[in-house]
Structure formats: C-alpha cells, structure tokens
Amino acid sequence: MELRQLRYVVSVAEHGNFRRAAQALGMTQPSLSRQVGAVERELGTRLFERTARGVVVTAAGAVYAGHARRVLDQVEAGATEARRAARGQAGSLRLGFVGEALIELLPSLLARFRSAHPGVVLECRELSTAQSGAALLAGEIDLAISRGAPAGEGAERLTAVPVAADHLIAVCHRGHPFAGQSAISPGQLRGQPLIAAPAADEPAATRVLASLIETGSGVTHARDVHTVIGLAACGMGVGLVPSSVRRLDRAETVMVEVDPPLRLPDLTMSFRVNDISPPLGAFLDVTRAHCPGTGQLLARLMPRKHQKRG
C-alpha cells in the first residue's frame, strides 16, 4: 500500500464522489477509480458502494478511511518536524558554562535564543573551564562557554571564539584596609590571603594570577564567584574576580579596581569543528546578532553549513 493510495481513499470518502475527488487530486476520474479499485482488491473488501449520484462509504470504508487519515496526518506531522529540525527550530542543544557567564552574557543570550527557537530543548550544565573542554571533546555537550579557549590534547578539534572581555578586580570585606581605596596595585595583593578558583578548574585564569598567588600568604580556593564573594564577606581574604562580578556586590563587601589592570582570558564560546547540527547553527546565529563584536570572527570560523543562507 502506498501513501498516494491512502490519499485517494480519503479524498473519495470526503467528497462522496469520484469526479469531485479526482478534480481535487488533479487526476482523471478513471485513473482514480482504478487506484481505489486496486486498494479494494488488496484488502479483499469494498470500501465504497457506487451509485448514480456518487458513492456511499461502506462500514469497512469508514474504518479504513479513518486509519488512512491518521497515517497521513502522522506523515505530515513528521515532515513538518523534520523541516523544523533542519532549520534549527527543533531538537536539543547541550550547553556547558562557567558560572560567571550567568552574570552578564547568558541571561540575555539564552532569553533571545529561547524566544527565537522555542522548540529547541536547551540543556544547561555549570562546568569549570577544564570540565567543559573535556565534556565537549567527549561529545557530552555541544557548546561550551569557558574562561579562555579549551587547551590540551584534542583542542585542535574545537572551534573557539571570544564572546566577552574582562579584567581582574578585588573584592574584600568592608572592614579591610583596601575597602577605602578606589584602586590597588598588583603589588598590594602580594602577601594578602587570597581567594581564587582552583588552578585545575581554571588554568588560563590562574596563569594570569600566578605572580600574585605564588608569593601570597595563602590561597583559599572557591569554585564559583558567588563563593568567592561570600568568603570575602566573611573576612577570609581578598577575592580575585572578573570585573563583571560588580553586579553581584553585597552589603558586606567592596569591589576594588586593580591598577594597572590585569586582563583575564576572554569568555570563550567553543564547539566541535565538525558539528553541523541545526540547533547549534541556530544558537551561533543568535550569538552573532547578540554579540556584534564577535559576529565577523564567528562568521569566519563557523562551519559552512552554519552560515545563514540568504
């Protein structure tokens, strides 16, 4: 049985007349009659009683036409979903991100993506830079936002593009001597008890801070910026955080600039070079529009199949 034959049966049942059904289908009446007759012979039962005024659907015909409609509806629904998936309007996207990306970048970017592509299931996981690079290479996530590009074995299989720049600031308790200063020098941080991310989690950022941490009088490790601020609020030391963290200031703490500025590794978006999934392409398109400074660079680095077609 072919789909076109199901359409023939449904059309005759709906029109109650071979001539009108043939016109609707764009075929001749004799051809339609032969096709329906072939279906009846295959089923071994009559679907329609032919009369001078048209046709009457038999009990068997009514049952068969009902099933045929459902099959055709399912086929059409499948075709619609397939087209939506090909346009990046369906499917799923797995995103790994460092917590600080939630301060400025991700809230508006994810809102924009979800508004434009509500049919895509977005799975988000907070991961350190080291974890997200490993997860991306292992195929556990499709996209990573990390502090600096993933490095090490397999990194050549990834495309990475910066999406936001940042520099170091310090956060301390309001009773700390730094709290009354508009800025401090890197030299003033040396010898202070510091609070920073573990080197294994954020290797690129740790390299920037190496001269401060190595000569310090101790480092308390915290895996996310909220914990850094919380520990600073407890008087545990001076937290080292990206400047975007100013949005998270709390009553017990003060944010202090470091001058001259120490630039941190960029927040970077990474994905597998050969990944051509439509949901990923859709997310990259939204990123290009949302992060204008990144758009041209991302356009050059994106796989050809992710380029927007005019």
From TrEMBL:
Domain HTH lysR-type, chain residue ranges per copy: 1-58
Any Pfam family matching the protein: HTH_1
PROSITE patterns recorded: HTH_LYSR (PS50931)
Annotated InterPro entries: LysR_HTH_N, LysR_subst-bd, WH-like_DNA-bd_sf, WH_DNA-bd_sf
Record's keyword terms, sorted: DNA-binding, Transcription, Transcription regulation
Source taxon at top rank: Bacteria
Family: Belongs to the LysR transcriptional regulatory family.
Name under which the protein is recorded: LysR family transcriptional regulator
